Protein backbone atom coordinates (compact mmCIF):
# COMPACT_ATOMS: atom_id res chain seq x y z
CA UNK A 1 0.00 0.00 0.00
CA UNK A 2 1.21 3.46 -0.81
CA UNK A 3 1.33 5.89 2.09
CA UNK A 4 2.42 3.26 4.61
CA UNK A 5 5.83 3.38 6.29
CA UNK A 6 6.57 -0.17 7.37
CA UNK A 7 10.18 0.62 8.31
CA UNK A 8 9.15 3.01 11.10
CA UNK A 9 6.18 1.42 12.84
CA UNK A 10 3.93 3.18 15.30
CA UNK A 11 2.15 2.04 18.45
CA UNK A 12 -1.59 2.08 19.11
CA UNK A 13 -3.75 0.75 21.91
CA UNK A 14 -4.81 -2.73 20.82
CA UNK A 15 -8.14 -4.46 21.14
CA UNK A 16 -7.18 -5.75 24.59
CA UNK A 17 -5.97 -2.35 25.81
CA UNK A 18 -2.28 -3.19 25.40
CA UNK A 19 0.23 -1.27 23.23
CA UNK A 20 0.49 -2.83 19.78
CA UNK A 21 3.15 -2.18 17.11
CA UNK A 22 1.47 -1.33 13.79
CA UNK A 23 2.32 0.16 10.38
CA UNK A 24 2.53 3.96 10.29
CA UNK A 25 0.44 5.96 7.81
CA UNK A 26 2.58 8.83 6.51
CA UNK A 27 0.82 9.73 3.26
CA UNK A 28 -2.38 9.24 1.29
CA UNK A 29 -3.17 5.52 1.25
CA UNK A 30 -3.38 3.87 -2.16
CA UNK A 31 -3.28 0.38 -3.58
CA UNK A 32 -0.03 -0.09 -5.44
CA UNK A 33 -0.57 -3.63 -6.66
CA UNK A 34 -2.84 -6.65 -6.22
CA UNK A 35 -2.39 -8.50 -2.95
CA UNK A 36 -4.49 -11.70 -3.08
CA UNK A 37 -5.42 -11.90 -6.76
CA UNK A 38 -2.80 -14.55 -7.55
CA UNK A 39 -4.18 -16.75 -4.75
CA UNK A 40 -7.73 -16.53 -6.08
CA UNK A 41 -6.59 -17.21 -9.66
CA UNK A 42 -4.71 -20.30 -8.47
CA UNK A 43 -7.71 -21.56 -6.52
CA UNK A 44 -10.12 -20.87 -9.40
CA UNK A 45 -7.85 -22.82 -11.76
CA UNK A 46 -7.98 -25.81 -9.42
CA UNK A 47 -11.65 -26.03 -8.45
CA UNK A 48 -15.11 -25.70 -9.90
CA UNK A 49 -16.55 -25.05 -6.44
CA UNK A 50 -17.37 -21.64 -4.99
CA UNK A 51 -14.33 -19.56 -4.05
CA UNK A 52 -14.43 -17.32 -0.99
CA UNK A 53 -11.66 -14.89 -0.07
CA UNK A 54 -11.34 -12.91 3.14
CA UNK A 55 -9.83 -9.47 3.55
CA UNK A 56 -9.42 -7.23 6.56
CA UNK A 57 -12.13 -4.59 6.58
CA UNK A 58 -11.40 -0.87 6.37
CA UNK A 59 -12.35 -0.13 9.99
CA UNK A 60 -10.06 -2.87 11.32
CA UNK A 61 -7.25 -1.74 9.03
CA UNK A 62 -7.69 1.80 10.34
CA UNK A 63 -7.52 0.63 13.95
CA UNK A 64 -4.40 -1.42 13.16
CA UNK A 65 -2.40 1.53 11.83
CA UNK A 66 -0.82 4.60 13.39
CA UNK A 67 -2.41 7.54 11.60
CA UNK A 68 0.22 10.28 11.22
CA UNK A 69 -1.25 11.76 8.04
CA UNK A 70 -5.05 12.06 8.00
CA UNK A 71 -6.89 14.65 10.09
CA UNK A 72 -9.46 11.99 11.05
CA UNK A 73 -9.54 8.19 11.19
CA UNK A 74 -12.79 8.23 9.21
CA UNK A 75 -10.92 9.80 6.27
CA UNK A 76 -8.23 7.12 6.52
CA UNK A 77 -10.90 4.41 6.59
CA UNK A 78 -12.48 5.76 3.42
CA UNK A 79 -9.16 5.72 1.52
CA UNK A 80 -8.50 2.20 2.78
CA UNK A 81 -12.01 1.28 1.61
CA UNK A 82 -11.27 2.68 -1.86
CA UNK A 83 -8.08 0.58 -2.03
CA UNK A 84 -10.05 -2.48 -0.87
CA UNK A 85 -12.65 -1.84 -3.55
CA UNK A 86 -9.92 -1.96 -6.22
CA UNK A 87 -8.60 -5.23 -4.76
CA UNK A 88 -12.10 -6.73 -4.56
CA UNK A 89 -12.83 -5.85 -8.19
CA UNK A 90 -9.65 -7.67 -9.24
CA UNK A 91 -10.50 -10.61 -6.98
CA UNK A 92 -13.92 -10.93 -8.60
CA UNK A 93 -12.31 -10.77 -12.06
CA UNK A 94 -9.90 -13.53 -10.98
CA UNK A 95 -12.81 -15.80 -10.05
CA UNK A 96 -13.80 -15.08 -6.44
CA UNK A 97 -17.46 -15.85 -5.84
CA UNK A 98 -17.74 -14.65 -2.24
CA UNK A 99 -15.96 -11.68 -0.67
CA UNK A 100 -15.67 -11.58 3.13
CA UNK A 101 -14.51 -8.52 5.05
CA UNK A 102 -13.30 -9.27 8.57
CA UNK A 103 -14.09 -6.49 11.06
CA UNK A 104 -13.15 -7.72 14.56
CA UNK A 105 -12.33 -4.25 15.81
CA UNK A 106 -15.92 -3.06 15.41
CA UNK A 107 -16.82 -5.08 18.49
CA UNK A 108 -13.98 -3.58 20.51
CA UNK A 109 -14.61 0.06 19.52
CA UNK A 110 -18.39 0.37 19.01
CA UNK A 111 -18.60 4.18 19.20
CA UNK A 112 -16.01 4.67 16.49
CA UNK A 113 -17.63 1.87 14.49
CA UNK A 114 -20.99 3.66 14.65
CA UNK A 115 -19.37 6.86 13.46
CA UNK A 116 -17.65 5.59 10.30
CA UNK A 117 -17.33 1.80 9.90
CA UNK A 118 -20.56 1.23 7.97
CA UNK A 119 -19.76 4.04 5.53
CA UNK A 120 -16.29 2.58 4.93
CA UNK A 121 -17.60 -0.97 4.49
CA UNK A 122 -20.20 0.26 2.01
CA UNK A 123 -17.44 2.07 0.09
CA UNK A 124 -15.28 -1.06 0.01
CA UNK A 125 -18.20 -3.07 -1.42
CA UNK A 126 -19.51 -0.35 -3.75
CA UNK A 127 -20.44 -1.79 -7.15
CA UNK A 128 -19.46 -5.35 -6.17
CA UNK A 129 -21.84 -7.98 -7.54
CA UNK A 130 -22.51 -11.31 -5.88
CA UNK A 131 -22.31 -12.51 -2.30
CA UNK A 132 -20.50 -10.40 0.25
CA UNK A 133 -20.06 -11.07 3.96
CA UNK A 134 -18.96 -8.93 6.88
CA UNK A 135 -17.58 -11.05 9.72
CA UNK A 136 -17.57 -9.49 13.19
CA UNK A 137 -15.25 -11.70 15.18
CA UNK A 138 -13.85 -11.40 18.73
CA UNK A 139 -17.43 -11.11 19.96
CA UNK A 140 -17.20 -14.23 22.08
CA UNK A 141 -20.09 -14.54 24.52
CA UNK A 142 -17.95 -14.84 27.63
CA UNK A 143 -14.22 -15.39 27.18
CA UNK A 144 -13.75 -15.80 30.96
CA UNK A 145 -15.98 -18.89 30.93
CA UNK A 146 -14.03 -20.31 27.98
CA UNK A 147 -10.72 -19.74 29.76
CA UNK A 148 -12.09 -21.32 32.94
CA UNK A 149 -13.58 -24.38 31.26
CA UNK A 150 -10.84 -25.16 28.76
CA UNK A 151 -7.25 -25.51 30.02
CA UNK A 152 -4.62 -23.50 28.13
CA UNK A 153 -2.96 -26.57 26.63
CA UNK A 154 -6.33 -27.59 25.12
CA UNK A 155 -6.95 -24.14 23.59
CA UNK A 156 -3.57 -24.29 21.84
CA UNK A 157 -4.52 -27.36 19.79
Rg (CA only) = 17 Å
Helix content: 40-55%
> Might you state the CATH topology name?
TIM Barrel
Largest sheet: 3 strands, mixed
Q: How much strand content do the residues show?
A: 25-35%
Main-sheet strand order equals 1-2-4
Straight-line N-to-C gap: 34 Å
Poorly predicted residue ranges: 142-157
Mean pLDDT: 88
The first-level CATH class is given as Alpha Beta
Number of domains: 1
Question: How many beta strands in the DSSP annotation?
Answer: 6
Determine the number of helices (DSSP H or I, runs of at least 4 residues): 7
What do these coordinates show?
This protein has 157 residues and is an alpha/beta fold. It has one domain (2-155): TIM Barrel (Alpha-Beta Barrel), CATH 3.20.20. The chain is 42% helix and 26% strand. It is built from seven helices and six strands; from the N terminus they run ββαβαβαβααβαα. It has helices at residues 37-45, 58-63, 73-93, 105-108, 110-124, 143-149, 152-155, and strands at 2-13, 19-30, 52-56, 66-67, 98-102, 131-135. The chain has a three-stranded mixed β-sheet with strand order 1-2-4. Helix 3 (73-93) packs parallel to helix 5. It is globular, with a radius of gyration of 17 Å. The chain starts with a strand and ends with a helix. The model is unreliable at 142-157 (pLDDT under 50).
Topology at a glance:
Elements: E1 2-13, E2 19-30, H1 37-45, E3 52-56, H2 58-63, E4 66-67, H3 73-93, E5 98-102, H4 105-108, H5 110-124, E6 131-135, H6 143-149, H7 152-155
Parallel strand pairs: 2-4, 3-5, 5-6
Antiparallel strand pairs: 1-2
Helix pairs in contact: 3-5
